[in-house]
């Protein structure tokens, strides 16, 4: 493999993937009984710079998640075969799957806020090319869920233990596909967009025994083009995947959205993402803006500048968990519409910036904390405790965990190689009264508390993150919320 291929997923490669502007006269339709056409911006009319900046600001914000996912597709087109980028990140050409065979490593920079509770897989699909077949093995009693989201990061499939999904073959098709469904396909799921993402998650205990036991079942997980379907289960030893390149070395997530390239990429993204009901005017304004920018270099320069300003002043601050969602007691917060954002553009972009590819709320309930119970920013210079009273662990039918992320929403390497605590950990020690105390600090606690220790980066800000997989009603309706993160002042 040559050097260019080996370093495919870099900022330089992403910057070179910009698509040309595709000028198109804007039209708008409304869903009336007569399908009456509503006049939109007139092609060729002058547009003031101030107005162009106004439209650019809104367009950049609501389209940011779509461009984010679309650039992942462009990056995956550079991948020669399923493998591991840098030996740690599962990557594959579009419409193919790559899987890990263990927890993800802390050096991963492909997706912010990974977890170390599951074995992950990853695929970017392009249903313009072909429908894809998804294999579901018999997971037994093991928790699993397959996440499938469209270009907007909205979910469109229901596959997992909580759905009672039976082993077999399933089909993902695009919005315009009307072909013949082969015999042997249990169910068809239609995506609202041709481009999207597929992420299997399979729970695994943090024990050598379960690491060995999970291999047989994950080997039968699959996603591949319909043309490869023969009714037989394809088996893959994911531990033998090839490695590409040396991986990412930056502290932050790969920069999937570049304001300088955004307007060149947007036309293709709009073409791949049909408007939702009521969005026709947004699309018409965006296309008119693109046409004006193509005609007038001054307008183009203005909206490129406005994109950079919007990224810095609107999008980047949403990286902090305390800037979006619903505030909860003790300075936790949460969202209730993950992967079901619809026209909630603020939350969609905030989640895409801070922790993209969240599950639907019935699959996973997320709770975030940037601050302790007193409102002070969490920092590794302090020591904290999180105590779940007896009978007050996160209410789940699946599993739960408390994960720690550094200031970039990734794991900070530590000698224990421990980045979360929860159901997967079989040596947690409970207090005499039945409560469970977890110790969040940079230095090791007393020896009798080390099994309950969640290491924090020394003298650095961090965040805590509770996941409740297959949540029960108290976690969904707010009856249960996480306990306070208490700073040890001794």
From TrEMBL:
Residue ranges of every copy of the DUF1254 domain listed in the record: 94-225
Cleaved signal peptide residues: 1-25
Domain DUF1214: 364-473
UniProt cross-references to InterPro entries, sorted A to Z: DUF1214, DUF1214_C_sf, DUF1254, DUF1254_sf
Keywords, ordered alphabetically: Signal
Superkingdom assignment: Bacteria
SUPFAM superfamilies: VPA0735-like (SSF160935)
Protein name: Uncharacterized conserved protein
Organism from which the protein derives: Paraburkholderia phenazinium
Lineage: Bacteria, Pseudomonadati, Pseudomonadota, Betaproteobacteria, Burkholderiales
């Amino acid at each position: 493999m040559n050097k260019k291929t080996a370093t495919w997923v870099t900022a330089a490669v992403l910057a070179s993937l910009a698509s040309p502007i595709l000028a198109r006269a804007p039209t708008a339709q409304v869903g009336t009984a007569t399908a009456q056409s509503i006049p939109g911006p007139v092609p060729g009319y002058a547009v003031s710079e101030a107005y162009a900046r106004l439209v650019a600001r809104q367009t950049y914000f609501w389209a940011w998640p779509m461009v984010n996912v679309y650039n992942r597709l462009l990056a995956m087109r550079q991948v020669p075969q399923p493998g591991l980028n840098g030996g740690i990140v599962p990557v594959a050409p579009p419409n193919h799957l790559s899987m890990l065979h263990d927890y993800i490593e802390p050096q991963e920079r492909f997706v912010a806020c990974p977890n170390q509770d599951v074995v992950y897989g990853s695929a970017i699909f392009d249903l313009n090319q072909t429908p894809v077949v998804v294999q579901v093995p018999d997971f037994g009693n093991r928790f699993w869920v397959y996440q499938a989201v469209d270009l907007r990061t909205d979910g469109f499939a229901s596959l997992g233990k909580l759905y009672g999904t039976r082993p077999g073959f399933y089909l993902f098709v695009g919005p315009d596909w009307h072909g013949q469904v082969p015999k042997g396909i249990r169910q068809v799921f239609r995506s609202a967009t041709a481009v999207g993402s597929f992420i299997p998650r399979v729970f695994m205990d943090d024990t050598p025994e379960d690491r060995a036991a999970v291999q047989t079942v994950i080997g039968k997980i699959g996603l591949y083009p319909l043309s490869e379907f023969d009714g037989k289960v394809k088996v893959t030893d994911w531990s033998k995947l090839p490695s590409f390149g040396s991986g990412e070395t930056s502290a932050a997530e790969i920069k999937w959205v570049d304001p300088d390239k955004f307007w060149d990429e947007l036309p293709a993204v709009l073409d791949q993402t049909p408007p939702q009901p009521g969005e026709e005017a947004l699309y018409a304004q965006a296309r008119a803006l693109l046409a004006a920018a193509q005609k007038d270099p001054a307008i183009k320069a203005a909206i490129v500048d406005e994109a950079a300003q919007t990224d810095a002043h609107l999008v980047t601050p949403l990286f902090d968990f305390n800037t979006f969602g619903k505030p909860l007691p003790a300075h936790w917060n949460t969202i209730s519409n993950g992967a079901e954002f619809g026209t909630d553009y603020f939350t969609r972009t905030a989640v895409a910036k801070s922790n993209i590819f969240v599950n639907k709320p019935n699959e996973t309930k997320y709770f975030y904390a940037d601050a302790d119970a007193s409102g002070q920013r969490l920092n590794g210079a302090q020591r904290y405790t999180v105590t779940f009273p007896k009978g007050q662990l996160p209410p789940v039918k699946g599993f739960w965990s408390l994960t720690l992320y550094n200031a970039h929403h990734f794991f900070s390497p530590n000698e224990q190689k421990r980045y979360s605590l929860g159901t997967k950990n079989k040596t947690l020690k409970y207090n005499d009264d039945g409560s469970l105390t977890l110790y969040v600090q940079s230095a090791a606690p007393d020896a009798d508390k080390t099994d309950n220790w969640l290491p924090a980066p020394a003298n650095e800000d961090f965040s805590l993150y509770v996941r409740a997989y297959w949540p029960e009603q108290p976690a969904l309706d707010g009856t249960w919320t996480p306990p306070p993160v208490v700073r040890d002042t001794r």
